[in-house]
TrEMBL record:
The keyword Transferase does not apply. The keyword Coiled coil does not apply. It comes from the Eukaryota. Pfam families: Ig_3, V-set. Keywords: Membrane, Transmembrane, Transmembrane helix. The chain crosses the membrane at residues 269-294. The lineage of its organism: Eukaryota, Metazoa, Chordata, Craniata, Vertebrata. Residues 326-348 have a biased composition (Low complexity). This is Ig-like domain-containing protein. Residues 309-319 have a biased composition (Basic and acidic residues). It comes from Pleurodeles waltl (Iberian ribbed newt). GO terms for cellular component: cell surface; cytoplasmic microtubule; membrane. PANTHER family: CXADR-LIKE MEMBRANE PROTEIN (PTHR44783:SF1). Residues 349-362 have a biased composition (Polar residues). Residues 42-165, 172-264 form the Ig-like domain.
């Protein structure tokens, strides 16, 4: 549909004649009023002339979007009624108070969208801009895309303006959790949580993870909230053991991190000294037991070695072999020493002599001893030697005396 501009009034063509007549009457009325005001107020005349030739419309909108998402900035216009030949569409980004950047334009039937380097390939018209929808679409939003956008549509000397404020929200970066302080009983422990990036305000919230099912619960009663992301566990005890979770959130999203707390039970000096003393006493007792055992074994071994040298009075006398008359003294001595198996004393020697005398075979006839021989025997007697008187009817037997070496064994 074509339109014509007549005396500053936008009049559509090819309409009903009655409607056109009414429009002309309205425009005539407006001209008359304008002339009257021009006579009274010269300043108002200029303003009326401007508004009579320029149809201006403005709209303001605020949009919030999360980074990496897509957004459409609306811009509706009615300039297509004047024909597409002279239609111009321009999107601007307000960089500063007095500076603007061109984002995308349509002019003379061509689209230009390579003005901003970091927006190339991410911007386009969202719909049929020739039919009255010049909305701008931005793909994969970045924090640098935030700002005030201006949509300006011009056709045949008439303008329409739209203002859109775009705020790009950034999710909190993955938070980092750590502890500060001593994990001993009775000490204070700080739980810290920090997110390096994200749109303010960022909210930090600490919760305790229950052992059963991993459900979140409140912090211990002894905890104290500090600054953002900071919690102090006071007067630590074994009941504070477990895992704690930090929740970081803002308008764009949230993130979490966990930290594990294991309280260490500190042993007192007295307990340590007592344990050391107990170990030393145990080692000392073991040493004494080993010494006593070794001493007992040595004593038993010594007794076993000394037992064969003891003389028992009730022991059986050693067997003696009869010596025939005329046998040499050395032979009798050797046979006597050979038949002895144990050491003898004076009493055992006497018993052996009596046994030998009793078992000897009696002979007929008297036995005479010379006096000199008896004295010689008496003079040869030594301590430890013995000589028993023989019966008159018994065969004389020469009994050698035991030597000193045999007695000392």
């Amino acid at each position: 549909m074509l339109a014509s501009l007549r005396d500053g009034c936008l009049t559509p063509s090819r309409v009903h004649p009655s409607l056109e007549t009414r429009k002309e009457l309205s425009c005539s009325s407006t001209r008359d009023e304008s002339r009257t005001q021009n006579l009274k107020m010269p300043t108002a005349k200029a303003l009326l002339l401007v508004f009579s030739f320029v149809w201006c419309g403005a709209a303001q909108t605020a949009i919030k979007k999360v980074a990496e998402e897509n957004v459409t900035l609306p811009c509706q216009h009615r300039m297509s009624l004047l024909g597409p030949q002279s239609l111009d569409i321009e999107w601007l980004l307000q960089v500063s108070e007095n500076s603007q950047k061109v984002v995308i334009t349509y002019s003379g039937g061509t689209i230009y969208d390579n003005f901003i380097e970091n927006m190339r390939g991410r911007i386009s018209f969202a719909s049929n801009y020739l039919a009255g929808d010049a909305s701008l679409q931005i793909h994969s939003l970045q924090p640098g895309d935030a700002g005030q956008y201006i949509c300006k549509v011009k056709n045949a000397g008439q303008y329409e303006w739209s203002y859109i404020t775009l705020q790009v929200l950034v999710k909190p970066s993955e938070p980092k959790c750590w502890t500060e302080g001593d994990l001993s009983v009775g000490e204070n422990l700080s739980l810290n949580c920090k997110s390096a990036a994200g749109t303010e305000p960022i909210v930090y919230q600490w919760q305790r993870i229950n052992d059963r099912g991993g459900k979140l619960g409140p912090l211990p009663p002894t905890s104290r909230l500090g600054s953002e992301g900071h919690v102090v566990l006071q007067n630590l005890s074994s009941t504070d053991n477990g895992s704690y979770r930090c929740l970081v959130s803002n308008e764009a999203g949230q993130g979490t991190c966990d930290v594990h707390v294991m309280v260490q039970v500190a042993h007192s000096i007295g307990v340590i000294v007592g344990a050391v003393c107990s170990v030393l006493v145990g080692v000392f007792l073991i040493f004494i037991a080993v010494c006593l055992t070794l001493r007992r074994k040595e004593t038993k071994k010594y007794e076993e070695e000394e037992t064969p040298n003891e003389i028992r009075e009730d022991a059986e006398a050693p067997k003696a072999r009869l010596v025939q008359p005329g046998s040499s003294f050395s032979g009798s001595r050797s046979s006597r020493s050979g038949s002895s198996s144990t050491r003898s004393t004076n009493n055992s020697a006497c018993r052996s002599q009596q046994t030998l005398s009793t078992q000897a075979t009696p002979r007929s006839g008297p036995v005479h001893y010379s006096h000199g021989h008896a004295e010689a025997r008496g003079s040869d007697s030594r301590p430890g030697s013995y000589a028993s008187p023989m019966k008159l009817d018994a065969t004389p037997i020469m009994v050698p005396t035991q030597n000193t070496a045999f007695q000392m064994v």
